[in-house]
Design brief:
Layout (H helix, E strand, L loop, with lengths): L8 H5 L5 H6 L3 H7 L21 E2 L29 H7 L2 H17 L4 E2 L23 H16 L4 E7 L12 E3 L2 H19 L3 E4 L3 E2 L2 E2 L4 H11 L5 E4 L7 H7 L11 H11 L5 H21 L14 H15 L1 E5 L12 E4 L1 H4 L19 H11 L6 E2 L10 H13 L2 E7 L18 H13 L3 E6 L9 H4 L2 E4 L7 H9 L13 E2 L17 E3 L8 H6 L4 E3 L10 E11 L2 E10 L5 E10 L11 E10 L4 E9 H4 L1 E3 L4 E3 L3 E10 L2 E10 L14 H6 L3 H10 L8 H7 L1 H7 L4 H4 L9 H14 L1
Parallel strand pairs: 1-2, 2-3, 3-5, 4-6, 4-16, 5-8, 10-11, 10-12, 12-13, 13-14
Antiparallel strand pairs: 6-7, 9-14, 15-17, 18-19, 19-22, 20-21, 20-25, 23-24, 25-26
Helix pairs in contact: 3-10, 3-11, 4-12, 5-6, 5-12, 6-7, 12-18, 14-18, 15-16, 23-24
Bound molecules: beta-D-glucopyranose.
Length: 773
């Protein structure tokens, strides 16, 4: 591996000169060399000008710095690092402050390992519950993804380590991910798939953005000037570097021309030579290569400026391994979602008689497979941690595996588990998706838990109905049958290296669960929005559900769900009162008083959804626009404020190709989930002028709605009362006739006999109206 950053005088001196000046000193070959990797994880140095190499490494929920020469697939051993909860868990925390702290810890570990850029966070939208990489993504909602993604980037970059916001864009499946074209209409593209990226870029300026493998509307994202230059840079103001996903470059010259700055990993010099040749033969303007090289130099400068003297890796004192493990445990505890708790089966008393069943309790599944695989500094199992808590009260906790590592069962394992279950008051049954089914690189086939586990669950429930199911899964599983069989379900996702302790703490009430679903759990796979066209065919996947992703879909179709978006129970209860909302130039501010009405301290996630009845554009019945996690002591009341930014009220208007806030009275729903709305208020919001000129093609309805032309046309038509026999008079007098004519382009109506205005007058009217509007 190439030697990377060293705080030598040479490296520090690169800060003395603007990047453009350094680039001006480079040869064509040197410039090209800066825009691709030296190997799997490092850039190339240019020692002549004191430019060191820097290291980029996965990410996102831990530092995966490989020890030996890289193999990319994660087979080579990586240095131990804290395995924080993957995004599926962190997303459920709904806690930006927590993600920022995790980001800080990731930054500290990156610093200790000499890593300049950590490859994350991944904030792609969970379009289908089948996506094999959903465990690495935050939510089905762009506000949740954008707010939480921003927090992680903020924390990481506060430590002088760069983020790599990925995978830009529309990488929502793993099937054929290297080639497939995500075919998405402009509104869902902007409002759902790009919105989170826009927020993170505008608010945090990640050092790098990683373009995805796939095509977007037919064009590889690595060579899409619209995506990388027009949208990312010109519209959003991104001033960092675009790095390719590892192996995402199709045609390097086209890519650089489109705004791709750095190809990773190395291409053994082949594509650098292509760039040099393209400049020499005039097919690539040298200034374009200069820009990419300048951005590469600027990235190195940021890394040099941010670099702290390393005191050695984790166990040698580079960071506080214990404190990071504790943070991983806290984060896991805040991410667990208590889905069901009938009859208050949970929390358990410390001295309760419990039996733990399921191999996953002993051998935890705590992260997903692929490039994000972290080598943890330590690993807690739920079984050990349950025994610690129960043991302190003198309770013994019997265990039966129930099934093997592969998720398969046997008569013997079942019999042993049933025996243990029968002897206990409460059974803690650990079920989950086997590791082999969830990974980067392929999608899942279904949402089912292994048949052997479901059969085991039936046998256990028959022996002891007081059964609590604890789940380990990166993507959601179908729970519609299980939820009817057991009184309590704890959604334990993949919780990172300290998840075992967090699960035990939630089960015994040491931690009051406060996670909420950042994605809907449907009743059936067939109900899910992308069901009919996921994962596409012949190189294309059509996003036919349009805007209706996640809860937007289930709500619009009025579909029953197993557990709705935003859902999550607590061991206490919360009441909402006195909601109010005010509009200002920068958006609307919602205030609501939340009271912890139960007997325990706890945290509530207050969710704010909006809708606009009578909107002129298609909208979901409700859309999340803001949220706040508030910690309340038992009995405590607090006024919670949630600000909804004006830009988050906007929709993408395809007539003018920009964001527009539609004026009107917005309904603001405040609730504990998308299906548990507690208070509703409304607020008038001024709209943005669309600035669409009237033409002869404009309809009578559009003209009448126009502030200048409307009243004039109204008056002209009002001349007749119908009794005079004129067409105009008849129109005004008969409401259904008028409604019918409202869709008529004015240019065509103007030629009709009996009209009060002729074509010429209409043209004049339009000119006046357009000039004044
Ligand atoms: C993944 C990225 C990852 C990169 C480097 C790719 O296969 O899609 O998320 O950062 O490899 O390991």
């Amino acid at each position: 591996m190439t030697d990377t950053l060293n705080p030598t005088d040479a490296a520090a001196s690169v800060l003395d000169r603007p990047a453009a000046e350094i680039v001006a000193d480079l040869t064509l070959e040197e410039k090209a060399s800066l825009t691709s990797g030296a190997d799997f994880w490092t850039t190339k140095p240019v020692e002549r000008v004191g430019l060191p190499a820097i290291m980029l490494t996965d990410g996102p929920h831990g530092v995966r710095k490989q020890r030996e020469d890289s193999d990319h697939l994660g087979l080579a051993d990586s240095v131990p690092a804290t395995c924080f909860p993957p995004a599926v868990a962190l997303g459920s925390s709904f806690d930006p402050g927590l993600l920022e702290r995790v980001g800080i810890a990731l930054g500290e570990e990156s610093q200790a390992e000499g890593v300049a850029v950590l490859l994350g966070p991944g904030i792609n939208i969970k379009r289908s519950p089948l996506c094999g990489r959903n465990f690495e993504y935050l939510s089905e909602d762009p506000i949740v993804s954008g707010v939480l993604g921003s927090a992680l980037v903020r924390g990481l970059q506060s430590q002088g380590v760069g983020a790599s916001l990925k995978h830009f864009a529309a990488n929502n499946q793993e099937s054929d991910r290297m080639r497939v074209s995500a075919d998405i209409d402009p509104r869902p593209l902007r409002e759902i798939y790009l919105r989170g990226f826009q927020r993170v870029v505008e608010s945090e300026q990640p050092w790098t953005v990683m373009c995805s493998y796939n095509r977007l509307n037919g064009v590889y994202t690595s060579e899409d000037p619209w995506l990388l230059n027009s949208v990312l840079r010109d519209e959003w103001g991104f001033d960092g570097l675009v790095v390719s996903d590892w192996g995402a470059v199709n045609d390097r010259v086209t890519g650089v021309a489109a705004g791709l700055d750095l190809e990773m990993p190395a291409s053994q010099g082949r594509t650098d030579a292509e760039l040099v040749a393209a400049v020499r033969n005039g097919s690539l303007d040298e200034s374009v290569l200069d820009t990419a090289a300048r951005r590469a130099v600027e990235l190195v400068q940021k890394a040099v400026a941010g670099q702290r003297p390393s005191t050695g890796s984790g166990n040698e004192g580079g960071y506080d391994v214990d404190a990071h493990h504790a943070l991983a445990r806290e984060a896991a505890g805040a991410s667990i979602v208590l889905l069901k708790n009938e009859g208050a089966v949970l929390p358990l008393a410390r001295d309760a008689s419990v039996a733990v069943i399921g191999e996953l309790a002993r051998t935890p599944r705590y992260q997903g497979a692929g490039s994000s695989l972290i080598n943890p500094t330590r690993l807690d199992s739920a079984l050990d941690e349950i025994r610690v808590l129960a043991g302190a009260a003198g309770a013994e906790v019997p265990f039966a595996a129930g099934y093997g590592d592969d998720g398969e069962g046997s008569d013997e394992l079942t019999a042993e588990a049933v025996a243990a279950a029968s002897d206990a008051d409460t059974v803690l049954l650990f079920l989950g998706v086997p590791a082999a089914q969830e990974s980067e690189g392929f999608d899942r086939d279904d949402l089912e838990l292994p048949a052997a586990q479901l059969a085991l669950a039936e046998a256990i429930v028959a022996a002891n109905p007081r059964t609590v199911v604890v789940l380990s899964n990166g993507g959601v599983v179908r729970l519609s049958t299980l939820a009817e069989q057991v009184p309590a379900i704890v959604e334990g996702w993949l919780l990172g290296q300290a998840g075992g302790g967090a699960v035990a703490e939630v089960l015994y009430g040491v931690v009051n669960p406060s996670g909420r679903l950042a994605e809907t759990i449907p009743v059936r796979l067939a109900d899910s929005p992308a069901y009919l066209d996921f994962p596409g065919e012949h190189g294309h996947v059509r996003y036919g559900e349009g805007l209706f992703v996640g809860y937007r879909w289930y709500d619009a179709r009025e579909l029953e769900v197993s557990f709705p978006f935003g859902h999550g129970l607590s061991y206490t209860s919360f009441e909402y009162a006195d909601a109010s909302v005010v509009a200002a130039a920068d958006g609307v501010t919602v205030r609501i008083t939340v009271t912890n009405t139960g007997g325990r301290d706890g945290a509530e996630v207050v969710q704010v959804y909006t809708s606009l009845p009578g909107s002129t554009v298609t909208r979901a019945p409700r859309e999340l626009k803001g949220f706040a996690k508030v910690v309340l002591a038992a009995g405590e009341s607090r006024e919670v404020e949630v600000h909804v930014r004006r830009e988050d009220l906007a929709y993408w208007d395809t007539r003018v190709d920009r964001w527009l806030v539609e004026g009107g009275t917005y309904i603001v729903e405040i609730g504990a989930s998308s299906r548990d709305i507690r208070q509703t208020v409304s607020v008038a919001v001024d709209g943005d002028a669309a600035g669409i000129p009237l033409t002869m093609e404009s309809s009578i309805g559009e003209i009448l709605a126009h502030p200048v032309a409307g009243p004039i046309v109204q008056q002209a038509f009002a001349g007749g009362d119908g009794a005079d026999g004129s067409t105009a008079g008849a129109l005004m007098a008969d409401p259904s006739m008028f409604k019918m004519m409202a869709s008529f382009p004015i240019g065509r109506l103007a030629s009709f006999p009996g009209m009060p205005v002729g074509r010429e007058q209409v043209e004049q009217l339009l000119a006046v109206a357009n000039a004044q509007a």
